[in-house]
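Problem 12. The chain below contains 181 residues. Write out its predicted structure in token notation.
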Amino acid sequence: MSMQIGYGILVDTATHNFVRKLQLELHQVIGIGLARQPPHITVKSPFAIDDMGPFSAYLSSLATRLSPFTIDAQGFGTFGEQVLYLDILPNKRLNDLHELILEEMNSDFGIAAGEYEGPNIKFHISVAGFRKAVDFQAAQQYISRYQPAFSFPLTQLGVFYYLGPGQSWIVSHQVKLSNQV
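Solution.
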């Protein structure tokens, strides 16, 4: 059975709560739908697999080899008028983690990097997606009241599983880094 998964960093409680609060406000003010997946930073874009087992095991193994490092999120960014996100500041250790995952996915499983990975990656925490420019513009105006700035350690990774068209994503497996300080 073919399925799609991706890997992400689960954010700390304060960042999670801010993103969810903002999503709820945008839902109440503009009427956007709420995301089913928790706020996260994608470190491996979705890819097709037939068996979840080896990929959950890989993430668990990866977590034993990593030490926490700090991630800084500041301000907002957009992908055109379709996506509003919390911006992740440039971070060498985050880039190194992403490159390691890409290398190991390719060498261990034959899975190539996606179009928006490697040098094309833009680390971010998605807040909302839009189908209509008027909704995007209303959201841009609404969020101008906020100046978000968060700093948190990488402590937890997750496997994001695609439920199917119109069904979004869920976290099907999560792991804590075992080398936490």
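Discussion. The CA atoms of residues 84 and 140 lie 8 Å apart. Students who got a different answer should revisit the alignment rule from Section 12.3.
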